[in-house]
Amino acid sequence: MHRIGAAVLLTVVLTAGCGVQSGTTDLERARIGLDSVDGRVGDLRLLSVSIASPGPRGSTHLAGDTAALLLTVANDGQDDDVLTGAETAVAEKVVFRDGDGAAEERLDVAVPAGGVAVLREVTGAHLELTQLRETLRSGFSVPVTFEFRDAGAVTLSVPIRTYEGVRPDRLVEHSS
Q1: Can you give the pLDDT at residue 173?
Q2: 173 by DSSP, 3-state: which?
Q3: Largest Cα span, the chain
Q4: In CATH, what number is assigned to the domain containing residue 107?
Q5: pTM of this prediction?
Q6: Does residue 26 sit in the same domain as residue 52?
Q7: 175 in a domain, yes or no?
Q8: pLDDT by position in tens, the chain (length 176)
Q9: Which residues are listed as membrane-spanning (predicted)?
Q10: Rounded to an integer, what distance in angstroms lies between the CA atom of residue 122 and that of residue 101?
């Protein structure tokens, strides 16, 4: 009888640990240290999506400021697609910016068939959240919806990176 009880207890403990990763909340995501998220819509994979750290000045993006939204979009399909929009309730707009160039309010980012669109350079091509409506703190996540011409829309809970002392587009990510 004790063996059956021990086996049941062991099964409960092991399966309880399996569910932790799949149902993470934003607070849990911050606590376990995830600094980017991946997603998929149609044949498109959104990879290493994150909001850049505010930098050495602290751990918050202040309301009214801007924040870089970094990602790579990989197209596993046979047809080209286009990122036509992005939105979030925490910013007035999401725009395209190439380094210090003028912000382009109309998103028109080509994602070639079998190729990638790299929007990960804070000093180069990236998306930018403008006129933040609230203070954003490192370690938390915000919902962002990405709209593609053919694949449709996907909403991801995008984490705000913690300052690492290095530009976020220069961080080397290791997988275990």
Answers
A1: 46
A2: coil
A3: 73
A4: 2.60.40.1890
A5: 0.75
A6: no
A7: no
A8: 444 444 443 333 333 333 333 344 444 344 445 789 999 999 999 999 999 987 765 678 899 999 999 999 999 999 999 999 999 999 999 999 998 889 999 999 999 999 999 999 888 999 999 999 999 988 899 999 999 999 999 999 999 987 666 554 554 444 43
A9: none
A10: 12
Residue listed under structure tokens 């915000």: 142
- pLDDT at position 44, please? 99
Which residue in 109, 82, 80 sits closest to 96, CA to CA? 109
136 and 118 in a single domain? The answer is yes
| CA distance linking residue 30 with residue 24, whole number of Å | 10
State the CB neighbour count (10 A cutoff) for residue 151.
21
Q: Is the dihedral of CA 5, 6, 9, 11 positive or negative?
A: negative
Q: Alpha carbon of 16 to those of 2, 25, 29, 39: distances in Å?
A: 21, 16, 17, 25
Q: Is 50 left (phi over 0), alpha (psi -120 to 50) or beta?
A: beta
Is the same domain home to 67 and 146? yes
Rounded to the nearest 5°, which phi and psi values hold at 143?
-75, 135
Six token digits for residue 166: 């290095």
* DSSP annotation string for 25-60: -HHHHHHTT---EEEEETTEEEEEEEEPP--TT-SE
Q: Report the distance separating Cα 39 and Cα 157, nearest Å.
A: 10
Residues 147, 71, single domain; the answer is yes
